[in-house]
Every structure is written in structure tokens, then in C-alpha cells.
Design goal:
mainly alpha
């Protein structure tokens, strides 16, 4: 897991770097579609960045709350929120920018899960074992839960990465689906 976390970070940083370079720089030409919403480049960028930060805060708060113990309910809420964000972004940004931001959102959640939950939990469990102390089952549960989330987010992230090469995805009238 130690090496994986750096691969994860490198992937996320390169993705965010490309997001900034391709979508945010150069007047955010790929971000704004006047046929979708009449917003400025600065507003579009603020929406994109705000979505990434706000999504992590909402996701983490939900899964750390008592609702997070009820997996089917927390999943349903998470899924509805993801659909709402997808719908909202496709009505504010260009279809292409909306897609890439949903992918960046999921990638950000995955990276944060690895760095804030999976790896720290593993370190604490290994340290307890080395010290001859009993392991805290809550740490194992927390790491497993976030690892499962990352597993299920992988395919949508890959789909979004490939979708930018196929305008029939992001350019469709039902692109939010």
C-alpha cells in the first residue's frame, strides 16, 4: 500500500495538472458553452474547483456520520448526490467540462480515501501489531469501506477519461445520465 499511495498521488496530480492546463488556462475555452449557460470563465472555473472541494467535504461528512453506518442508505444518498452534481454541471459548464469534472471529483474522492483513510488505518494496524497491542476493528472497517468505494469508482473514472475522445458521450442531450 505504501507504493500504491504514491502511484495514486502521481495519477491524481497529473490529472489535476491537465485539468488546470487544458480546462482552466487559456480563458477556460473548454469550460464555457454559451448554449448551455451564459457564465464567465472565472465563474466556470470557480464552479469546477468548488465542486471538487465541496464533493469531498460532503462525501466525507456523509460516510463519517451515523448515516455512513447504514451502507445501503449512505450509498443511495451518495448516488443521488452524484447524479445531482452531474446534472447540475451539465447545465452550467460545457458537456466536456462537466464530464471531466465528474471524473476529477471521483478521482479526488479516491485519492483522499487512500491518503486519509486506507493508508493511515493500515499504519495504525501494523503499529498495534508490532507493539503487541490489540488491533482496533474500527480502523480495519474504515479502510475496507473506503477501499470498496474506490473499487466501485474505478469504472466511472475510466469511462470519463475515455469519453473526451467520443463527443457522442458528453455532447448528447442526456449527457448527465
Amino acid at each position: 500500500v505504501h507504493w500504491f499511495m504514491f502511484q495514486n498521488l502521481t495519477t491524481w496530480l497529473s490529472g489535476i495538472g491537465l485539468l488546470v492546463l487544458v480546462y482552466y488556462m487559456g480563458g477556460a475555452a473548454y469550460m464555457v458553452d454559451p448554449g448551455v449557460a451564459n457564465i464567465s470563465a472565472g465563474t466556470a472555473i470557480a464552479i469546477g474547483v468548488g465542486t471538487l472541494i465541496g464533493a469531498w467535504l460532503a462525501y466525507d461528512l456523509l460516510w463519517r456520520s451515523p448515516l455512513g453506518k447504514n451502507t445501503p442508505l449512505a450509498f443511495a444518498i451518495s448516488f443521488v448526490l452524484l447524479i445531482a452534481v452531474s446534472y447540475g454541471l451539465t447545465h452550467l459548464l460545457s458537456g466536456r467540462a462537466a464530464y471531466i469534472h465528474v471524473g476529477a471529483l471521483l478521482g479526488t474522492l479516491m485519492t483522499a480515501n487512500v491518503w486519509f483513510y486506507v493508508v493511515p488505518s493500515q499504519r495504525e494496524l501494523v503499529a498495534a501489531t508490532r507493539a503487541g497491542l490489540p488491533q482496533d476493528p474500527a480502523l480495519s472497517y474504515r479502510a475496507k469501506q473506503r477501499s470498496i468505494h474506490n473499487n466501485y469508482m474505478t469504472f466511472p473514472v475510466l469511462f470519463v477519461m475515455v469519453s473526451n475522445h467520443f463527443p457522442s458521450t458528453y455532447g448528447n442531450t442526456l449527457n448527465w445520465l
